[in-house]
Amino acid sequence: MNFRFLSLALLAGVAVTAANAVIIDDFMDGARFDVVTPSGPGPIAAATPATVLGGLRYTLIGLLGAPKGNAILDVANPADLGYFSVSTDSRAQSGAQLGYGWSATATPAPLNFNMTGVPKLQVNFVFNDLPMTAKATLNGVASRTVNVPGGVTAGTPFLASFDFTGDAVIMDVDTILIEFVTAPGSDYTLTRVEAVPEPASMLALGLGLAGVIARRRKA
Length: 219
Description:
- By secondary structure, this protein is an alpha+beta fold.
- The protein has 2 domains: about 1-20 and about 200-219; about 25-195, Sandwich (Jelly Rolls).
- It has helices spanning about 5-20, 200-219; strands at about 20-25, 30-35, 45-50, 55-65, 70-75, 85-90, 95-100, 120-130, 130-140, 140-150, 160-165, 175-180, 190-195.
- The longest helix has 20 residues, at about 200-219.
- The chain starts with a helix and ends with a helix.
């Protein structure tokens, strides 16, 4: 087979797969701005109506350890839509949560989300100055952890991928909770949360398209 056409087919497979991704949140609405200080209040939790999976975005921001500074959560800011950002004073350490179908302040309806075809949860970081840990949990029982490097910028983004392939929980996901634990003084920004197919499915789709192209060329 002509490798040029194989490459085009594989690229086409990736493009189709990307189109089949399920966008859980793109932070285009449901604005939230919370500030926690050593004197309080904190932590601050909220369930905000938004165009997200399940209709409610759960957020929490708090200070860890002996707080010596402030932490700010800024989500879907009308002046700069499309971002979830946390910034922390240099002497403070923050902890934040982002959830769907789950809340400490309300009783949202279960997501009833079947992730069988899209078992990888992905979070796109466009900024992160210091190494941090991100943890994703489905239904409160199945968890995956990713170490996010420091030095992430818009020019060198980082895709945190939580792979739940093969886990029985993905057949009926009712809650998604993502937790962020940072080093003191850390700042970070996300642009999107989505569920995507596993790499094997992407490759199979690409190879399938390659076969179709090959047959058509022979015909």
